[in-house]
Every structure is written in C-alpha cells, then in structure tokens.
Write a structure and sequence with these properties.
By secondary structure, the chain is an all-alpha fold. The chain is 79% helix and 0% strand. It has one domain: Growth Hormone, Chain: A (Up-down Bundle), CATH 1.20.1250. It has 17 helices and no strands. Helix 3 runs antiparallel to helix 4. The radius of gyration is 21 Å and the shape is globular.
Length: 412
C-alpha cells in the first residue's frame, strides 16, 4: 500500500508545483513585445494568445472537476503538469501564429487539470480551522510564480531570445509531474468528521446553481478575474509603451511588484481573515469585498496618471489590495458546497471566471487599443469591472451575516 504524505509535505509539493504553474503561464506576458515583433502581431492578435490559453483552460475544467470527484486525483494532477509543460516547451518552437495559438491552448488544458484538482486535494488534507491558511500558502505561489515568470522570462529573452524563455520554463515540469504518484491520496471529506459521501451525479452538479452563497462568490470572482486577466497580460507592455520603460525594465518592475505585493497581500489577507472568522463568520467575504472596493481608485490612478512614478505607486498599492482575498475566495468556493462536490465546484468556478472573465478581457483591451489608438484609454475599463466584483462580494458578506444570525437565533 502506498505511504501517505504528511499534511506539511503535501502542501509543500503542491505549492511548489503551483509556483511552476504560474511561472510557465506568465512567461508570455514578459516576452510579449518580442513575440509581436518577431511574428508581426498587432495588439488584437497578441490578446488572442491569452484567449487561446483560456479556451483550453476553461473548456476542459468541468471535465477535470467531474473526474476529480470520482477518480484518482494524483494521476489527474500528473497528467495536467506534463501537458502544460509540454505545451510551454513547444511554444518556444512555434514558427507561425496558428502554431502559437495551438500550443497555448495545450498549456491551458494542462493547467486546468492542476488548478481544478489541487485545491480539493488540500481541502481533504487540512481541517476547517487550518484550511484557509493552507490554501493561502498554496496560492502565494500565484504572485511568486507569476513574478518569476516575468523576471526570468524577460531576462532570458533579453539575452538569448524569447524562444529560449519558453523552452527552459517548461522543461522541469516534464519530470516533476511524477512527484505525487508514489503516495496515497487523502480520503474525500475525511478531515471534516462526516461519513464519506457517494460519488456525485449530474443531478448533484446542478445543485451548485441553487447555492446562493456559492453563486455570489463566483459572480464576484468573474468580474475580478476579467480585470486581473487583462491587467496581467498587458501590464508590462503598458509600462513599456505608455511610460517608456524598456521591455526588460517593465517586466522586472512588474514582476518585482507581483512578488512583494503578492506575497504580503496573500499572507496578510489569508491569515487575517482566518483570525477574524473566529469572531465573524462572514469574515472571508468582508475581506474580499472591502479590499476590492478600496483598490478601485488606485487601479484607476495606475492607468490614468501621466507621471510614471505616481502611476507605478498606485499600481503597487492596487496589486497589494487585490491579493488580500486570494486565500479566502478559494476557501469560500470549497466551503459553500458539499464535500463530495469540491472538485466540481472549483471546476465550475474556473469555467465561469474564464468563460465570462479573462478569456475575453485581454483581447477586448487589445481591440479597444487598436480602435482608440491608445492602450492607456483601453485599460480604463478594468477598474469598472473591479467595482462590480466588489459590490457582489459585499452582497455575499451581508448574506452570510444574515445566515449566521438566523442560525444562532433560538427557535421557540
């Protein structure tokens, strides 16, 4: 029988693999100006590369979610890592726009498996009191991996060309895909103290659309992801084009801010929310709503102020605030549904946030930039999307507060 990993090593391995996940994903944004020059792509086509990734990502996520609640999760994770790593390596060999689009779709398919399955794996390893902190640590890999992708990708591109950036980024994952296979999986719902639940059917999956709190979490996440998807794709290019930074300097600054603001924001928001929930059952939702609402004026300033130092300071502040909810939003996705639907709930949220969020936003910003002749004006739609997300999450907080008060009110 396979030996079971300790919670520490489970989280350590999955967090490291998640870092590699986002490292590979954000290589493209770091080298995008070079790719555009080499393949002669306009802004709309450059935005379509992000759309291609999201097509592979969100279309396949429901399938991975369905099988993730019914079959071996460690094998699904391994297959996902191998596929996204292979797609990243092949991106470095693409000679045409069509091949580039196809390989980005492949990267999205692999990452869909990992992003869908891993959070439910962690949820079945850590109990309710430690789950949000564990997921917070897991999702710290987002800013670290994204920043390393930007910094290392920009550096490799500057010295050896953008193709080498993709090849060296993807190669490690072809071997690391095997890490979890020798170990036993955690039981579904075992740490929650209940009896194991049966494998869900289609009728059970449809119940997700009747869970108001789950729908509010995902609704806010859609608007949030619309903004951040375009922001992450165009951020270095915006600094390069609007404020005159070199391609390498823009990638380095953007990556550096991602590291500092991302790590601090994710840790502060996640651990503070865990402590606050001991006194307020709606704490996770309040952290989400309030952090995004406060970030809106800073995001507007980052895109509008002509002075580059002021704009960059606003950008850093907005990024810090937007990372505060990284842990809580994913914890709420998992805790507002039955334990045997966790992978499906994560998959459905991935499908929704990309189908209605960042699958369109990078290309929309690119097309608006082409039409208006200004990337700066095009990016101003993003703070509006953040405002909508903040409103939905504040609604969720009020809903959870009402539910908590109703549950604590004595009957009779």
């Amino acid at each position: 029988m396979n030996r079971k990993l300790s919670p520490f090593w489970t989280l350590f391995i999955l967090t490291g693999l998640n870092l590699l996940n986002y490292f590979d994903r954000f290589i493209l944004s770091a080298v995008l100006p070079s790719v555009q020059r080499d393949l002669q792509l306009n802004d709309g086509d450059a935005g379509r590369l992000a759309t291609a990734f999201m097509l592979g990502y969100f279309i396949t996520s429901p399938f991975f979610g369905y099988f993730g609640d019914r079959s071996s999760r460690k094998w699904l994770i391994a297959v996902g890592i191998f596929i996204w790593s292979l797609g990243t390596v092949l991106t470095g060999f693409a000679q045409t726009f069509a091949l580039l689009v196809g390989f980005r779709v492949l990267v999205g398919v692999g990452e869909a498996s990992y992003a869908t399955i891993s959070p439910s794996y962690i949820s079945d390893t850590f109990g309710r009191e430690r789950r949000n902190n564990a997921l917070t640590i897991f999702y710290v890999a987002i800013p670290v991996g994204a920043a390393l992708g930007g910094i290392v990708g920009g550096w490799i591109s500057a010295h050896w060309g953008w193709r080498h950036a993709f090849i060296w980024a993807g190669a490690p994952g072809l071997l690391l895909a095997l890490l979890l296979l020798p170990f036993a999986e955690p039981g579904r719902g075992a740490v929650d103290g209940g009896q194991p639940q049966g494998k869900p059917g289609i009728a059970d999956l449809l119940k997700l659309f009747r869970l108001r709190e789950y729908l509010l979490v995902v609704g806010g996440y859609v608007a949030y992801t619309f903004a951040l998807g375009a922001f992450g794709h165009w951020g270095p290019t915006f600094l390069h084009r609007v404020h005159g930074l070199t391609e390498e300097s823009a990638s380095t600054f953007f990556g550096g801010v991602l590291v500092v603001a991302g790590i601090l924001g994710t840790f502060v928001g996640g651990f503070a929310a865990t402590a606050w929930r001991k006194h307020n059952p709606a704490a996770y939702a309040w952290v989400l709503g309030l952090s995004v609402i406060v970030a809106v004026p800073l995001a507007f300033g980052a895109f509008w102020f002509p002075a580059h130092k002021t704009a960059m300071a606003c950008l850093a502040g907005a990024m810090f605030l937007l990372f505060l909810g990284t842990g809580p939003v994913n914890t709420l996705i998992l805790e507002t549904v039955p334990v045997n639907l966790r992978a499906s709930a994560m998959a459905m949220s991935i499908f929704m946030i990309h189908a209605f969020g960042d699958i369109w936003s990078p290309e929309i910003v690119g097309r608006l930039s082409d039409v208006w002749g200004s990337l700066q004006k095009a990016t101003l739609i993003l703070p509006c999307a953040l405002l909508l997300g903040g409103i939905l999450w504040l609604w969720l907080a009020l809903q959870m507060r009402r539910t908590s008060r109703a549950a604590s009110t004595p009957v009779g």
